[in-house]
TrEMBL record:
It comes from Paracidovorax wautersii. The keyword Lipid metabolism does not apply. The chain crosses the membrane at residues 12-30, 42-67, 73-91, 118-135, 155-179, 191-211. This is L-lysine exporter family protein LysE/ArgO. It is a multi-pass membrane protein. Keywords: Cell membrane, Membrane, Transmembrane, Transmembrane helix.
Amino acid sequence: MFASLPWIPPLLQGFGMGAGLIMAIGAQNAHVLRTGLRRQHVGLTVAACIAVDVIAIAAGVAGMGALVQRSPVLLALARWGGAAFLAWYGLAAARRALHPAAALTAGPQAGPAPSRRTALAAVLAVSLLNPHMYLDTVVLLGALGGQQPPGLQGWFAAGAATASTLWFVALGCGARLLAPWFARPQAWRALDALVAAVMGALALTLALAPLGPAAPLSSSAAPSAPTAP
């Protein structure tokens, strides 16, 4: 069907796999959502997340993902570092959920806005200091993209990068539509409780499920993997 357009299948596969991994609730998405609800430096936050993801995806497809897979030390660092980061982020969300005084209000009136430098530092910290992000983008997407035929790997990376771009733009800019609901402190507590539960589950999954060179590759071997999301 795509004999004359061989770049379409890897582009769609990259888009599907990228969307499935990036759209899951995580520390980065939770930060973008909270920023969008407060309407503080939304464009800067979204742009930083997109830039980090695109660079990580490109690095993974270019070969860094395979390098990490072959190194037990790097895999162990990513595994335990990711579990620790997710657990810490989940505990912080649980603390906010249990203390209503720490709840935020949605909208531009939600407290003094941080400086651009502070906002940039916050989003880079939640992105670059999160080893789980590297597992998704560099290792998993890198392993899948690296198995594409020569000359088509870039299309897989482009598909995954497109999914990341569309998702973060929609999440950051669309968060204001939820502002009326998040005008209630109970809504913030519910969001933080959900984030805490998901972060805790991800941390446990990462800690209890051993990582190995075959793990990411086996997911690409399944015929339904690219369309699962």
